[in-house]
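Suppose you are handed a protein chain with no further information: no name, no annotation, nothing but its sequence. What can you learn? This example shows the usual starting point.
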Amino acid sequence: NMFYNCSSLTSLDLKNFDTTNVINMSGIFQNCSSLTNLNLTNFNTQNATNMSNMFSGCKSLTNVDLKNFDTKNATLMNGMFSGCSSLTSINVGNFNTQNVTNMASMFYNCSLLEELNLTSFDTSLVTNMSSLFYNCSSLTKLDLKNFDTTMVTDINSMFRNCTKLENLYLDKADFSSVTNSSNAFNSINKNVNIYVKDEKVKEFIHNLNNNVNVIISNEA
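A reasonable first move is to predict its three-dimensional structure. Written in structure tokens, the prediction is:
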């Protein structure tokens, strides 16, 4: 929470910050609601395990450079970009999520986000995906073909209010461990096409929202 609630801060020069030994980065920029740009190219995150709420509430942020982020040791990413409602894109293609267990609300209320590439995400240890994409109301496509949801128990409001979503690819999804699925597909675009692997997953989704079009991938 180093810069937590520094709501009048418009810029931050962190190029000489040595963060090599930092383990906990939780909430470091949380509620820096006037920040518009953040250059973290020199940020060393190799030892960080907790990245929860890192940029949460940075509602004016339009650009954040994460290309040098080393996330191989991160276990917590819940709320990481929550409320970043001015971001139109986030480049997380280099993120190593092999040890992450919590992604709850990671992109919650990123309402201007138009594209999101998560094809490299390893979600095999994640148990909580609640509100992960809640109110990502500008996204038209989500490719989650590689999402392994075997361990996930909570998908509460996961895709809630994704009102422009046209295609959702859940080809690998397995919801057999889920215990909380309330509102998971509520207020989603009723014309969305959801691609799944089998009849079991199709039935699971239709039990939550019978108005969406669920397609078994190998029958498409």
